[in-house]
Automatic annotation (TrEMBL):
Name this protein carries in UniProt: DUF1284 domain-containing protein
InterPro entries per record: DUF1284
A Pfam short name: DUF1284
Organism field: Desulforudis audaxviator (strain MP104C)
Amino acid sequence: MVKLRGHHLICLHFFKGKGYGKDFIDNISKVIEKARQSEIEIVDGTDDVCGAYPYNRDGFCTYSGNADQEVRRLDELAVKLLNVRNTVGWNHLKCRIPEIIEVWKEEACRDCDWNKTCFIE
């Protein structure tokens, strides 16, 4: 079973393999492949993606001064918008994302450093 935090339930669907280092890209690719084939356990905090994230320090996001607080806000928003708890399947998420994407873009993507990477063709 793959462990994912809230915002990764949405953001991984837009992953293009750009904007990150090779090790992190390889890890995300493996996590996505596994998520497509098994149930996803929704976790609070560090997940299977964060383990290889270069700004993960002892379970906290250190990308910027308030990054951990912001990531946790996005996790809560994602879980609320998707209306999921505990476990979920990749295909269920894939079906739900079009229904919530406009709110997600406004609330989460607007100030995200990777928003242009996610929505390029």
